[in-house]
Task: structure prediction
Amino acid sequence: MNKEGSDAESVADGYMKIGEHGELVPNYDMTLINFEEGDVLKGRVVRVDRDEVLVDIGFKSEGVIPPKELSVRYNVNPTEVISVNDEIDVMVLQKEDQDGRLILSKKRAETERAFRELERTYREDGNIVGEVIEIVKGGLILDIGLRGFLPASLVDIKRVKNLRKFIGEKLECKIVEFNRFRNNVVLSRKAYLEKSLKVTRKSIIEGLSIGQVKKGVISNIVDFGAFVDLGGIDGLIHISELSWNHINHPSEVVIVGDEVDVVILDIDKEKERVSLGLKQTQKDPWVEVAKKFSKGDLVAGKICKIVPFGIFVEIGDGIEGLVHISELSSQHVTNPEEVCSIGDEVDVCVVDIDLDRRRIGLSIKKAESQDSQEARAGSEEAKGKKPPADVSEGMKELKKEIEEDLGVEDYSLEVKKLKEFVSTEEAVTDESEDVAKSGEQPAQSLETILEEMKKNSRS
Result:
């Protein structure tokens, strides 16, 4: 082929063009790619600086990637995410800025590609893996090709207090919310874990039976009870099943991390719920109540709690009984705090024992009444009781000595006669006074009468 034919072919292919003076010159425009703003192109990194990265995309000039357009992570060092000669995807932001530069974005190219992949994963109910790069208010940010948000409540099946430990970890999650127009992707690791553990939980529940004793670890404490990890499934110990004693909060009995033995009380296989009991593994103090106390017993106790309707008195190890406000005093009581205080030691009377409901009724009023009755009974017994045997014997000996001194056989009879003579003396005295006034002879004196009585007894 002659030269003229070859030149004509080159012109026809467009790789050569006719210059200003009629000569053939290279058509450089044919070597440049055509693109518009928003297009995603491939390029090769030719230089990495701290304030910019230069990329060759086959254009007449190299494109510039500003630092903020390098990654979804904030304030990254360019050398940490990119290197010279790396082949990367970039999005055209501006074909020419005010300085005539071609502005590119690696971050937006990755975000665009990630959105397409995430949308497919979301439709197929698949999982996505991302690295935790940041802690924000309410949760974590994951690098999944864009900034995915993982709420704190969805980080784990259990409540997580320390989110910082997840920084740098790669977590597998499910997509629970996807909105491309708002650049919003919400993730849930909890949903992924629950789905993974569903088969495990089912097998665990199948292996449980009511009445079985299992070991577990306290995983969480709430106002109404405590949750126990049984090795793949959590069971609940209601606050009423934590202790035989009355408690105000589960933290009085257990703390998170405690290893405990629990009894299976109930199993709901459909809802995958397990009810547990802790107090059933402990000795029931109310068994001792039936042996130790009976109705009518007087018991010493200490006031441990005051409520508007009465007071609770501890009468044994872990045993509290209620003294109703009507049983506090024989006088009318409006407020229990008016007549007693926590820590006061009191005597109470057992008025009712309900072992089934674990309740015992007490009364201070009846205890005081019983004390008074016993005191009166003791006083009456003291008045009517006979003297001791040794006192009786002593009185008999004394009586005998008196009888020997007087020379009489029965001292009691003589005392009786003496009392009669005393009465006679009073009469004689009165008569003597009357005789003295009238001038008549007076009657015999008491001394004379006693002397005659003595003579008569000897004879």
User: Anything to note?
Assistant: The mean pLDDT is 79. The two ends are 199 Å apart (CA to CA). The CA atoms of residues 6 and 12 lie 10 Å apart.
